[in-house]
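Contributing new records

If you add data, match the layout below exactly. Sequence lines come first and carry their own label; structure lines follow with theirs. Keep one chain per record. Anything else will be rejected by the validation script.
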Amino acid sequence: MTGHARCGPEGDPEFFKDLDAVFAKHPDAARRYSVRCLALETDLLKVDFAKQVGVSRIEAGRIVTEFRNRDEFGNDGEDEPLCCEFAGEAPHEFCVRYCEL
């Protein structure tokens, strides 16, 4: 990744204008969510969210995220952790990061 990713209101002004209206319409829900650019994962780390999923855990006061193959994740008999980040286009949103609590 060279330079700065074209993320945020400067890179996608119409998208953020629409988000502002949605957040204003749903202020309680807006306090539970944020919008995050995926450029670090997709451009720098070359994560393919169609094939991989992030799994985050708290370790020594930090949030650590590892990327695992989707077909291997969740097949160990454990309960699926909470999906804490979604991506994709409606109506086909999918989980890109699980948070182990």
